[in-house]
Amino acid permease
Amino acid sequence: MIQFELALNECRSRREQGRAAEKRNEISMADTNANGNAQQSGSKLKSVESLDQTNAMERGLSNRHVQFIAIGGTIGTGLFLGSGKSISLTGPSIVFVYILVGVIMFFLMRAIGEMMYRDPSQHTFINFITRYLGNGWGHFAGWTYWAALVLLGMTEITAVSTYFITFFDTFGIDLTHWKWLIELCFLVSLVSVNLIAVKVFGEVEFWFSMIKITLIGAMIVTAVVMIVIGYQYPAARIHGVDHVSPAGHAGLDNLFAGFSFAPNGWMAFLMSFQMVFFAYELLEFVGVTVSETKNPREVLPKAVNEIIVRVLIFYVGALVAIMCIVPWTSFKPNEDGSFASPFIMVFQYAGLNWASALVFFVVITAASSSLNSLLYSAGRHLYQLAEESPSPMLNKIGQVSDRKVPARAILVSAVLILLSPIVNAIPGVSGAFVLFSSASSAVFLFIYILTLVAHRKYRRSDDFIPDGFVMPVWKVLNTVAIAFFVFIYLTLFLADDTRNSAIAGLVWLIGFGGFSLLRERYRSRDLKAALEHKE
């Protein structure tokens, strides 16, 4: 009897969710879109206002906010600090790797953009996995993505404090013993930004992005000037390099000297793909802002279509400028395996000895921006999961505050991120945390593949709208993107430092993925039995 009541209660819960979905997705075809443009007679494109009847969020993000959030999503600490290692792997051919991976990520964004354009009231693109692949895969993708965001947030808060300490160390100030306080202050500040209003979040991200763009632009301009005047620089002691860097000159010949697609072997060339892919992670963040964006059907296509241009300017432009100043053969690891920041090298060769402090200030900004975005995204995903959960306890988290932000979900995610210093302090737990946090990057590939499969289902469903933001040649581009993400995952098995992450990711897919599918299968069976018994 108790099992019957539980099943019946869940049935009612699902019926209520179904009615809400119908209310959002089955409004009259004669509605107009949010831009005020009349739709053609018989179009399936519903107006944003009609779809927003169940959207409790505030549309406070403007076109300017979303454009710079998208830019900021493509620029992380990896470009400022990790590009030296990327260059050392393959030399100038790393430019082609960045372009190729960027194009594939653009295909993914077009798929997400097409589905989001149809229903811009969704808080996350994960919902389309649920809609088109079923509740089992939706449950797996939703909780996996949220857990991965929290784990990345834990590593990001550690990175912020590390860069902060390094920044002050350039002035001879040691803040090592205050690392925990630095992490707490940064997290409290960014949580406050997320709790005030979505417009405040957008404004903060706008200025974070402006700082990063300014440094990249300054570095590119500096490199161009050095090339034009034929700048010669002496041997110098570069901050972050444990040996004296040789003298040289600025010129295009540095880029082509001894050019080879795989100067360090094809294994190193293959390994560069996964490194570049991880630099592009969270590019899909734009797909989480749509439900809080003004005029989403006008803003979304612009933000998505300009992604490839941003990749060419900021990533490729920066890498080309760096290798024109510093010969790619000069990028050698230190004794501890670390690499100096190429940005610091370029500025110091130009005679700007204070460049180290400048770059690490911007790196702090980039890491803070990443953490800010992670809090935003994790809060929205947990809110969505809690709102749709049959659990009364989780339902309490799935509520919006008076300021129309998912405050409880943001706070829960932040509290878990704050466990980072405690986890790092426990030796036995720390090793497992490193494994899981690295595996979390690998599972993003599963999410991307499921998203693309959901897109294929969408294109073949009755939901498809031919007058939307349609992905061209979708069968080819979708298939190419899926194959590429599978290829990236396979490369994780090639190196010792990523193999365990790949294995852990597979264990998670089989274990939690299998549990999610079986859970949905038994729930559906129990619900069916309960309904038949009631009839």
Remarks:
- The chain has one domain: 59-515.
- The longest strand covers residues 232-233.
- The chain has a mean pLDDT of 84.
- The two ends are 16 Å apart (CA to CA).
